[in-house]
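user: Here is a favour to ask of a fellow structure person. I have my own habits and do not want them to colour yours. Could you put it straight underneath, so I can go through it closely?

assistant:
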Amino acid sequence: MDLRFTREEEAFREEVAAFVRQNLPDDIRDKVLGHRRVEKDDHVRWHRILHAHGWGAPTWPVEWGGTGWSALQRLIFEIETFRAGAPRMLPFGLTMIGPVLMKYASREHQQRFLPRIPGVEDFWCQGYSEPGSGSDLASLRTRAVRSGNKYIVNGQKTWTTMAHFADWIFCLVRTDPEAKAQEGISMLLIDMKSPGVTVRPIKTLDGGHDVNETWFEDVEVPVENLLGEENRGWTYAKYLLGHERTGIAGIGHCHRELRQLRHYAAETTDGRGRPLIDDVRMRDKIARLEMDLLALEMLLLRVATQAAGTPGPEASIVKIRGSELQQDIAMLQMEVAGPHGWPYSPDWLQPGAPQPTSGPDWAASAASTYYDMRKTTIYGGSTEVQKNIISKMIIGF
């Protein structure tokens, strides 16, 4: 297998890299590369810059305003934008509800919602997990009872990432409590400004507030906001999760953080005043991560180029390896930071905040990245759940 880019692919890579260099705002780049807080306005601003250039939906077909790029072009785009310090493109609309709308929604829903996603005219969030119903998602208890031309929704969702920013939530609800667990679930598209919707913050290990709990108390949802057919939500949920898990691999993130890791190891010295990058054991650890990343890239390309349809067990394999690799890189960054990475305060991550006086500036955020990466093997379906999916779909039990 020839792993080198063709002349056309190399030209595309240079085009993407040049565009990001020229158009990514410096303040956003500095936040991302410095592991600072990236706010809603930063995400939206970058999305709209890409959208204005025709790159607002890299994974979508041209029919719906996408680029129509090949799997390799999409991978090159992710790697080059991340390397340059761009924030991750918001997945909730682009790679989660977007593909579901294209495959299962009515033409009316497609025309209503899809054109508003690439430019973030609508900010979406996901309403799947509940207390006690995360890995065992089919046990969810949020109820939607039909009353005339509307549903009345009551229940609670948790780990709703960026719900405090969201305009809409795609929400799994139980519409038939008498049916078998998976067969009584529907998907509703709910306006987050509806009376009865309450969002409460959840603070994570790094002191950040990306996730929330979301409460629904007698929330009225028009029947026309039902996606697809009633009680078929489990089918739509599985399709969406396959796309989400592929995205969690974080190829671009891994490339950027590995490059940062090499830089950190080059400017940090051991007890004898020698750069850590000159230590054969450190070089070996970095080389192992590089090989793991190359293998993950090949697997992701294989998954991305397979026949269209519901992503299979390969999506679970990509999710496991990608999430573990992100944790491994963060762990080695902490090892390079050494004692300078131990002190930590979330206040240090705010723009313009003073840094600790000892050690390099980047060490102040090493602990934050390490803490933040703890969640990658949990969200989108825990590693244990993914292994169960793989064994059932490939081995048969």
Observations:
- The longest strand covers residues 211-222.
